[in-house]
Amino acid sequence: MAVAQTTLKPAPVPEQELTPPKLKAPDGACDCHMHIFEPRFLPRKDTPYPPPVATVPHYNRAIRNRLGLSRSVVIQSVTHGADNSNLLAALESFEGTARGVAVVQPDIEEAELQRLSDAGVRGIRFEMNNGILSLDALEDVAARIAPFGWHIDLQTDGRKLPDLVDRLLALPCHVVLDHYGKFIDALPVDHPAVQAVVRLLASGRGWVKLTAPYAGRHRRPAPWPELVPIARAFLDAAPTQVVWGSEWPQSMLPVLGEPVPDHASLLDLLLDYTTDEGELGAILRDNPARLYDFPAVAS
Q: Which residues form the Amidohydrolase-related domain (predicted)?
C-alpha cells in the first residue's frame, strides 16, 4: 500500500469533554458514518478542505469508548478522491470491527473490487457536492458492485429525490441516503422529498442514516426539533432500514467557522425519536449488522 508524506500541517481534532450520553448503547452498537484522516496520506490536489489529523486511536477515545460503541463504518472522504489507501489503512487498524465505504472510478477492475471487498468495503460513495462519481455513473457502478453485495451510499440534495426515486429503486443494489436525506431546508413530512425517502425505505431496498442533523442551508442550530417528525416518519415506515452515525470529526464545520456539536448529544438525539428499546437496538445494532455484513449480536 503506497504511503505519501504530506507537507500540510493540519490541526488535530480537539478533544471533547468525556461526559457520557444518556442513551446506553446496546452491545454491538455501530457508528455508521465517520471518517479517519491519517496525516501520512496526501489529500487530492483539488481537495475542498484540508483534512484534520483524526486517527483511529483518537476516534476510539472520542467516540467508541465514550459512547459505548464497538463497531464503525469508515466513509471515504472527498479529500482523498478515489485513492482508498487511507480508508484501507483505517480498516486494518480496526482489526475486523469496521467496514468501509469507498470511492472508485467507473472503470475499476474486478480484481480491485475484490481486494476492497476482502478488506471490508461494503459500499461505494456518490457525493454530489465535491465527489468523484457523478449520477451519470450510477447504473454502471451499481451493476459492477451488485455481485459483491455492496450498496450505493448517496449524498445529494434531498429535494431532488422525487425525480430520482424510481431510478434508485431500479438499481440492482441497495441505496443508503446520508444525513436524514439531506433536504437542505426543513420540510414537512408530507413534502414529496420526505415521502420519496419513505417510499425507498418501505421498499426494503433503501436506507437512511440519521447523521449530521446540522446539514441544512442555514446550518440550523441544535437541538433540531424540525427533524423529529421526519425521523419518526422514517421509523414508522421501516424501522429495519434506519441507522445512525456520528459524522466524526465534522471536518467541514471548522472550515466554516462553526462549532462541532457534542457527540454524546448527537447519540442522544435518538431518544427524541424513540424510547422503544427494540427500535433503538435495531438502529444501533441489528440494522448495521445486516447492511454492513457484521456478525449478528444477540439482543
A: 30-294
